[in-house]
Amino acid sequence: MYFSDALKTTMANKPLILVTNDDGINAPGIRTLINIMNTLGEVVVVAPDSPQSGMGHAITLNSTLYAEQVFIDNGPQKEYSCSGTPADCVKIAIREILQRKPDLCVSGINHGSNSSINVIYSGTMSAAVEAGIEGIPAIGFSLLDYTWNANFEPSKPYIKTIVQKVLKQGLPNGIVLNVNVPNTSKKNIKGIKISRQAKANWVEEFDKRKNPQGKDYYWLSGKFVNLDSGEDTDEWALENNYISVVPVQFDLTAHHFIKELKNWNLNE
Amino acid sequence: MYFSDALKTTMANKPLILVTNDDGINAPGIRTLINIMNTLGEVVVVAPDSPQSGMGHAITLNSTLYAEQVFIDNGPQKEYSCSGTPADCVKIAIREILQRKPDLCVSGINHGSNSSINVIYSGTMSAAVEAGIEGIPAIGFSLLDYTWNANFEPSKPYIKTIVQKVLKQGLPNGIVLNVNVPNTSKKNIKGIKISRQAKANWVEEFDKRKNPQGKDYYWLSGKFVNLDSGEDTDEWALENNYISVVPVQFDLTAHHFIKELKNWNLNE
């Protein structure tokens, strides 16, 4: 079967929405996101066949990729399960699966935070960034609850609002949105706050153990440390029960440092 | 054996330099970088035991990590081979292997370009960024030659110059350097150019094949497309035989778009 044939259904005037994530195609977070998107457009899902958390912007260069159509629920969406990373899913969706460039790419809803420095490690956000590189408006959604049974209900109307705005207004080239939802009840959520990425890091604690052969090995774990006392950050918003929306760019140039760097006179 | 004991050698006043990469600890690129660093400080290498290209900022959350001392040449450096990603290597170096915070982290020399949008997918640069997050001055070095037998000779004096400057002047918090070297002879290199990240992307071409069981699979490949005609970009510098130095930040906030996003009035 050729994907292109499978998608030669008329898309009419509905927006074409690509949905992906990093927790895998069966995760409750993406199932919720698919349900919301089905009310807004023609939905195609291309998502990892297994969890890919912490994959950052990894792509699969040295091994093969599989992508096959799957049927998970009775929704109207088309779904493809892919053996690759979230960034791979977006690439293969655009080049091999979709008939036309999607109007929007949404990634998530991630089980766990992608606020502050977590954006760097996030497979959810790397998928959104990958779509952004391709000139597709893109949003990553995350809920601050790592559990499989996380309650995505309170986030639903906010996700719908944000997606509708982006479908209507678009996003400038080079910018995608990073949306994080506090883990609290519907009535406690105070609204949406446009924020900046908080300065924060992880203080790793490596749990050192011995394997049955007596060889040392480690588990990576750590403690999140917010180093930023600003009240305009995503961390502040989330701690105060706001949904944070951070505009994220993938031009990583520190433009403000170029002038000083030129003064280093490296050629002398 | 405890790493901490192994490193209780006096560091005197020499700078402590952490060396890593994404092509693996045996790659000629890192061996060259180690040799240069041995002339500048006390060197500890913590690098992947196998190639990790395209790993982006992946970290190992769901499996175990190994790190063990290895002896590859007769140089004065201490070396540890790690089963994880480049970002893992930096984390484990800082928390488990090194006795004190290093004065510098260098990553590379990568076999292949990490200019323009490649910085997003780069394991080499993710290691530098990881060190930067920890407040360590950090530089990623790459040579525009993907082959194992790449000629790193012409890059050597430039790498030494840049490292000496950074050791002397430091780098501001939140900034690391992305250095790319053109693949040309010593006499053709025109010098160092401070640049910005060119706007570019990859147009993927998925090579679709059938496995022996008749199932479709793909190889990811693609063509690099420079969309940026600016003469202040890293791509321009490299095409004109300059070594490009781009200051890279990991605050991904698109600060210039926050005001407009607030005008969207998402709470109404």
Automatic annotation (TrEMBL), chains A, B:
It catalyses: a ribonucleoside 5'-phosphate + H2O = a ribonucleoside + phosphate. Its cofactor is a divalent metal cation. It is found in: Cytoplasm. Pfam families: SurE (PF01975). Binds 1 divalent metal cation per subunit. Gene3D superfamilies: Survival protein SurE-like phosphatase/nucleotidase. It is an enzyme of class 3 (hydrolase). A divalent metal cation binds at residues 22-23, 53, 110. SUPFAM superfamilies: SurE-like. Its EC number is 3.1.3.5. Nucleotidase that shows phosphatase activity on nucleoside 5'-monophosphates. Belongs to the SurE nucleotidase family. This is 5'-nucleotidase SurE. The gene is surE.
